[in-house]
Design goal:
CATH class: Alpha Beta
Helix content: 10-25%
Number of helices: 5
CATH superfamily: Fumarylacetoacetase-like, C-terminal domain
CATH topology: Fumarylacetoacetate hydrolase, domain 2
Bound molecules: zinc ion
Order of helices and strands: EHEEEEEHEEHHEEEEHEEEE
Length: 221
């Protein structure tokens, strides 16, 4: 069944999710924690629509395939088609903000990186993108003032601030639209702050986004 993005007021987006466009290394500290250089151009990749699942439901992780890491990210819902957009057009097309987990099979990714191969097997598997409902936006928020957190079993592990992004939300979405047309119903993930780690089996996850979004969920096999 296709995944349909939802708003926090219960409305469904009129179209199913098409694709999830993501950025690697959009926070300097996270690039450093994985031993990667800080990029001059965003490193982009795509998770397929089949990787999207609800974050409110228990999060099923494919532990049989290796270490599964959590990456907590600000997610954007795209409401209008964008091709070669500038930052102002990109900003106007964002109709909702939420949270996502960019689940990553870290051992698999390390092997693929070593061999110079693409990352899809590590980041595009079914269920690799648990997504929250989206807070509807009437106008663009102050992106640099946004913040979000993840607590694992009651302990805060990640704390992201919009102000720490290497590429701001409008710049990032504009750059993505120069490589891939963004269509209504597409979702953008904006990169993870430092603190990524292994997802423990059975853990309780609590996520919060400034603006009032709070989610409690659980990890299952
Ligand atoms: Zn990520």
């Amino acid at each position: 069944m296709p995944f349909v993005p939802r708003f926090t007021d219960g409305r469904a987006f009129p179209q199913p999710l098409g694709k999830i466009v993501c950025v690697g290394r959009n926070y300097a500290e996270h690039a450093r924690e994985l031993g990667n250089p800080v990029p001059r151009q965003p490193l982009l990749f795509i998770k397929p629509a089949t990787s999207a699942v609800s974050l409110e439901a228990p999060v099923a992780a494919p532990f049989r395939r290796g270490d599964v890491h959590f990456e907590t990210e600000l997610a954007l819902l795209v409401g209008e088609a964008l091709t070669d957009a500038d930052a102002a057009e990109a900003e106007r097309a964002i109709v909702g903000i939420g949270l996502a987990l960019d689940l990553t099979l870290r051992d698999v990714q390390a092997r693929l990186k070593e061999q110079g191969q693409p990352w899809e097997m590590a980041k595009g598997f079914d269920g690799a993108c648990p997504l929250s409902a989206f807070l509807p936006l009437d106008e663009a928020p102050d992106w640099s003032a946004l913040s979000f957190t993840l607590a694992v079993n009651g302990e805060e592990r990640q704390h992201g601030h919009g102000a720490d992004m290497l590429f701001s939300v409008p710049e990032l979405v504009a750059e993505m639209s120069r490589h891939f047309t963004l269509a209504p119903g597409d979702v953008v993930l904006t990169g993870t702050p430092a603190g990524v780690g292994e997802l423990p089996r059975g853990a309780e996850l609590r996520l919060a986004l400034s603006g009032g979004l709070r989610i409690t969920t659980r990890v299952i096999d």
